[in-house]
Amino acid sequence: MNQIEIENLACGYPEREVLQQVSLCVEPGKVLVLLGPNGSGKTTLLRALFNLVVVYQGSILIEGEAVNQLSRKQLAQKLALSPQMEVPQWPMTVEETVQLGRSSHRGWIQPFQAEDKNFVDAALAQTGLTELRLRKITEISGGEWRRTLIARALAQQTKVLCLDEPTTGLDLKYQVEVLTLIRDLAHQRDLTVILTLHDLNLASCFADQIVLLSQGRIAATGTGEEVLTEERLSDVYQTKVKVIPHPEYRTPFIVPVL
Amino acid sequence: MQPRQLFLLWRMIPLMGFLLAALVVGIHFGAVELSFDQIRQSLWNPSEVSHISTILWQIRLPRVLLAACVGGGLAVAGAAFQGVFRNPLADPFVIGASSGAALGATLALLCIAGSITVITATWQIPWLILSAFAGAILVVGAVFVIAALSNAGRNAPLLTLILAGMALSSFTGALVSLIMFLNHEMLTTIFSWLLGSFSGRHWNEIMMAVPVIFFSGGLLWLMSRPLDLLSFGDETAMTLGLSTGKFRVLILIAATLCTAACVAVSGVIGFLGLMAPHMTRIMLGPRHVLLIPGSCLLGATLLVVADTLARTVIAPAEIPVGIVTALMGCPFFLFLLVSRGQQSR
């Protein structure tokens, strides 16, 4: 069964329809990357999964259930989001922040259990934050904060993991580490991973499936080789590009032509 | 996990110690100083009839306990408002509770003074308290309704609440000023109520306010985790499983009830609800499960101390306690801000 099925979706904000005619199936154990220029609707599509936008038409099913029929809590047990931007307000520690990822598994007044602590520890270890667990989130670097947000989503232990530009603000080492971790989780634990990226080459290296959005519609979907062609990218991004094979993996490698 | 939670409670002990010390000091000082022996004896034998016992049971004790409850209540409400609005500048009066209570109390004082004879002497105080309480609830309720009706409210519910609160506060504040202007002879009475005071408060006030403060404060403590989640913003709270709308309304109602009960019995005591949560955050961190009980203890301690100063500094006269909290609180708070800034640099 498909983990996520989106059918003929039109959605957006009260004044503005951002996405139109979006149909999409996501299988478990696959990394799906949403690509597209700024304003093409990548983040809106992610937000639609979380029932955070106005749906004008169509439906979104998760494990066969419509997202707008599920309670916030049920949804949070199925889907986790690592948001693109979030401003830390109070000086909580990294660990306390990640721990809040466990909220949907507990009642609102029930204390966290040993099981929660294990998941939190695992999430911290996977994102390389174990050493920083007692640091305040208002005093860590942008990259460390980004990894904290990813760890919090991992601690939710959901079948579907959504990440909005998880590599923004990370140096090359962590860009590769985070994406490798996400890909391994998807392949080994059968997680469904949906992420947005701006870097076409990282997408090409790590994606099992790519969805290219352009002006609120799906321009192409398929594997890297199928989607990332010179003609299509030049058209969608309105910039001339050359596509050459990656020297190691033979996946498409995109370079701009000035 | 169990020992860790015990550890958390353990961190409350110093604050409990502070409060106990403040209570003892508050009972000790006053127009007549009670020695610690006298306090102990009279506390152990409540039925004993003596000069000391009367001062302790009828004047000192209710006043000190009421100051503690109001201080705790304002601090808890402040912590909740700061959490739910994600704004360190929020205080218990941010959405109009104080101005509403002021209007209610002013009208009540006017009725009493204008000898609308329905109100007998014994009912004057409850009447004052209830109308202040009703005023606070009505104004905050109006703020909610305006925010809900507003188109902008759908996109920025918090900002709309704060703006509507500011506008209605100014409006009710103007009404209070108008009433004061038109009733010169009432000026001192109304003004001293507005500045906040525990002068002449008895068990009546405690019986009326404390159940509400305890109930709403306890409810806010139970809302600790939703408050933690809300501090990361609405959308994040939602993706982590919180029905933000429902919980926000519940928290705002509880915090408003708490504030209204405090204002109704003590007048408008500024600055404490802003200051106590910040000081507690420095001591215990920002998690609401600690922040709320910690703020409660610290707020209670601070207000008992402030009230003790208010009635002793220029004894036998009294300064309104609201003036003391502002005069003592601001410099201390600024000192904390500056010294904390230097540490982290």
What does this structure look like?
The complex is a heterodimer of chains A (258) and B (345). Chain A contains 9 helices and 12 strands. Chain A is of the alpha/beta class. Chain A has one domain (4-256): Rossmann fold (3-Layer(aba) Sandwich), CATH 3.40.50.300. Chain A has a 6-stranded mixed sheet with strand order 6-7-8-3-9-10, sandwiched between helices. In chain A, strands 2-1-4-5 form a 4-stranded antiparallel sheet, covered by helices on one side. A two-stranded antiparallel sheet of chain A has the order 11-12. In chain A, a hairpin with a 2-residue loop joins strand 4 (54-62) and strand 5. Chain A is globular. Chain B has one domain (2-344): Orthogonal Bundle (ABC transporter involved in vitamin B12 uptake, BtuC). Chain B has helices at 2-10, 13-28, 36-44, 51-85, 97-113, 124-149, 157-182, 187-195, 203-222, 224-230, 234-239, 244-266, 272-284, 288-312, 321-344. In chain B, helix 4 (51-85) runs parallel beside helix 9, helix 4 (51-85) packs across helix 13 (272-284) and helix 5 runs antiparallel to helix 6. Chains A and B meet through helix 2 and strand 6 of A and helix 10 and helix 11 of B.
